[in-house]
């Protein structure tokens, strides 16, 4: 039986899970495109490219705009100069601070495992004043591997004290990248159904779905007692 002994570590994805960062990412992408005389993309289009990390994002942007792929490296470099400080349009999803506070008060070690680069990850967490709530933060450039490879999540769980071989912990995310990563570890996966996923919910592996962070602590407590 996969029982989480209290306190059960809980690791979160970031973009599309705790924060709606698509408007800032969209603005940074379009600033680079305009600078290079390339037609901008819509918010919905850019949002659909988020989840796999910066390189995946720009591979999709380059394909969508018909840009010569040989220019991608320069475009990414230009994007990153903006992305490190892009916080003005990003919002936390409703109920996130309260849910994190409840989990921390109950003794759950909290962590972040995201494909977002570590610099912008720390910047946005500090911007919202929640960086100190997380005992470990694994970004998309913290390791050679990115999600859906399980290595980043395993590293986050190990840093929170979980058994590396049979971790008793919970992962919370919003996308197919997160679902596949959790299944590969494996740990139970709770999915925020208002995030950035591009695959129907019924086609993903998860323990529970939720659309309101108010109920997340209850879901985690129930999962920890399984």
TrEMBL record:
Presence of keyword Cell division: no
Top-level taxonomic group: Bacteria
Similarity remark: Belongs to the HAD-like hydrolase superfamily. CbbY/CbbZ/Gph/YieH family.
EC number(s) per entry: 3.1.3.18
Source organism: Paracoccus maritimus
Entry keyword Metal-binding: yes
Identification of the protein by name: phosphoglycolate phosphatase
Listed GO MF terms: phosphoglycolate phosphatase activity
Family annotation (SUPFAM superfamilies): HAD-like (SSF56784)
PANTHER family in the record: PHOSPHOGLYCOLATE PHOSPHATASE (PTHR43434:SF1)
Cofactor requirements of the protein: Mg(2+)
Record InterPro entries: HAD-like_hydrolase_sf, HAD-like_sf, HAD-SF_hydro_IA, HAD_2, HAD_sf, PGP-like_dom2, PGPase_prok
Annotated keywords: Carbohydrate metabolism, Hydrolase, Magnesium, Metal-binding
Catalytic activity: 2-phosphoglycolate + H2O = glycolate + phosphate
Gene name in the database record: gph
Pathway(s) this gene product operates in, as recorded in its UniProt entry: Organic acid metabolism; glycolate biosynthesis; glycolate from 2-phosphoglycolate: step 1/1
